[in-house]
What does this fold into?
Amino acid sequence: MLLYISNYNIIKEGPCVTKPEPGYRLDYFVRDCADGTSKIVVTRGAMETAKTDFKLMTQNNVLEFIANGGLEKPSFINRKEWKNNPDKNVVIMVDAYAFFSGILYGYIAFVYITKTKKWLIKSFKKHQNPDPRNLIFLTELGNFLGND
Amino acid sequence: MIIPTCPACASDDMVRNEKIREEILTPGLEFTFNEIYYTCNSCHEEGDFTGETDKNYLHAQKSAQTQLVKNILDNMNKAGITMAMLERVFELPSRTLTRWKNGDFSASTLALLRIIATYPWIIRVAENRFDQNHANFILIKVGVEELEKSLHPITYYATSKIDKTPPKQLFVNKPIAAGA
It folds into this structure.
């Protein structure tokens, strides 16, 4: 399989891979967050949950948080098509990552729009899945209760 | 007024929305600001694409923070904690708290005042130069007092009245153990 990296996208040619892989370079996304809202926009829905879940009250708060390494141990979740894309001739994909921030387990989804040359943060919230750091305790607890 | 183009699909078909929003400053002071956001009729994305909401929010937040600093310092003063004493205990330059009260404060100021308002016994820890042994002793003492209060609230407050040491408050409706 041939793999090469364009300005923002990782482009693959060759046989289809089953394991999902990110479409964008996360380090480029983090780097561009340092440039503020000139390059990245946080959607209203993402901003609402950034406020309630992470106490990040403005778009700049969110972008500075990301640029300063706020997404701890990011792990790629999946890549899905942007549903609201009005241009049906072009497929635009959204990358989603899980991350930690202290005791919080978070979820972020973003997309790069080539047409406007802007990143769009579609989602920024607490992850709905249980924190994997607690899984070991849950397993231990389950074993303990099961054995009792 | 210039309507921005959609950052998601570059459409010009955008609608401007305005909404009065309520927000709560940590800890507990309410304020309002004018939220302005745009909705794209083409891709239905919504957001503050011009930065107006952020500007309005920061302006309203600053006013609320100024009020919060005043409230905390006034309530401390009422509880017998003077500004001069706080400056001495926390080794701050003189008149620092006066500057804070007049609106010249930073995010660190707010962080410190929130900690003092929530855990007033930190003043006694600071008085003892943050010595770990003293700090642990004060923490245990306060912990025991809080436990007594929660187990026997009526007796505790009755005893407080007899001893003429009424529970002091830095926030309204939030009793604190200032005499730790």
Q: What stands out?
A: Residues 57-176 of chain B form one domain. The helical segments of chain B are 52-78, 83-89, 96-101, 107-118, 122-127, 132-151, 153-162. The interface with chain A takes residues 5-11, 23, 26, 37, 42-49, 51, 53-54, 57-58, 61 of chain B (CB under 8 Å).
